[in-house]
Specification:
With about 210 residues, the protein is an alpha+beta fold. It has helices at about 20-25, 80-85, 95-105, 110-115, 130-135, 160-170; strands at about 10-15, 35-40, 45, 50-55, 60-65, 65-70, 85-95, 95, 120, 125, 140-145, 145-150, 180, 190, 195-200, 205-214. Strands 1, 2, 3, 6, 7, 9, 10 and 13 form an eight-stranded mixed sheet that branches.
Length: about 210
């Protein structure tokens, strides 16, 4: 997989509307159960200090920073999270917002708005410390040095065990799968030249510069 370190990718699952304030900022209803969509593995790209090229001819491109889990083995009911997840990273679920709005109005799937190449940006991965330890740190996204998003898994509507069980039950979950766990409030557009930096607590995990294609 282009630019990725230490993990092989099979499926990329993404959780929508898992932070109440984010759902409200986009005018969406807060879901009563996890709401999932997928990205192709071709969407994955590493935040390695270089350039990420995004579509520049389909309206606004929005960033959505998220905690990302890497699955190490097939899911079994009742399995502790620490036996299923071996690594975590931070990621950005890039979204063609204008196109997504148009597709939603037509009742069509979101794939073109969510699954384009390089729409799933990933930092380097760290060993999974356990759910409790994850909740001790915030994650942040900075755009040109300014914090635009800050989140903590304790703020999620559906916690990690619930997300993993739901995903496995309805879609399957096995080694090499990634789960983007949802984005906090503060999403917004990028323009060419923006520098985006993802940090876990005080530790920078990845950064990149945005270029927009014509």
């Amino acid at each position: 997989m282009k630019g990725l370190v230490s993990v092989d990718i099979r499926n990329i699952y993404c959780v929508g509307r898992n932070y109440a304030l984010h759902a409200k900022e986009l005018g969406n209803q807060v879901p009563e159960e996890p709401f999932l969509f997928m990205k192709p593995s071709h969407a994955a790209v590493n935040a390695d200090g270089g350039v990420v090229r995004l579509p520049g001819n389909a309206g606004e491109v929005h960033y959505e920073a998220e905690l990302v889990l890497h699955i190490s083995r097939p899911y079994e009911p009742g399995m502790p999270v620490e036996e299923l997840v071996d690594q975590f990273a931070l990621g950005i679920d890039f979204t063609l917002r204008d196109l997504q709005t148009s597709l939603k109005q037509k009742g069509l799937p979101w794939l073109r708005a969510k699954g384009f190449r390089d729409s799933a940006v990933l930092t380097r991965f760290l060993p999974f410390p356990g759910v409790a330890a994850l909740a001790e740190q915030d994650f942040t996204l900075r755009k040109n040095g300014v914090v635009v998003q800050k989140g903590n898994i304790s703020e999620m509507l559906f916690d990690i065990p619930t997300l993993l069980a739901f995903t496995a039950t309805h879609f399957g979950l096995g080694a090499g799968d990634l789960l983007f766990t949802g984005t906090p409030s503060g999403v917004g557009p990028v323009v060419a030249g923006d520098q985006l930096t993802l940090s876990w607590g005080e530790q920078e995990l990845g950064s990149f510069r945005v270029e927009l294609s014509e």
